[in-house]
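Protein modeling request. Please complete all fields; requests missing the sequence field cannot be processed.
Requester role: graduate student
Desired output: 3D structure, token encoding
Chains: 1
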Amino acid sequence: MADKSLNKTELVAAVAAASGQTQTAVNEVLDSLFATLADSVSNGVKVTIPGWIAVERTSRAARTGRNPQTGEAIQIAAGNSVKISAGSKLKAAAK
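Delivered output (95 residues):
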């Protein structure tokens, strides 16, 4: 696990400083990016930024699980999830 983290406010400030844009402009771009990403994934569209990241919706089949308190078998409904894959540039940056 990483010892450090970067929250959205810190990310916006760092991108604004690196790009010469205002924090307001960078924040609006990030908000638009995340809204477009969420809309695309909810519609089943895979979003890929080559070399960096890929995001897609995946389906999980219905299955039988167990209630941890009682041990009773329960049915878990089918559902959707999100899969995020790191691209080659992002993987290389982690080394």
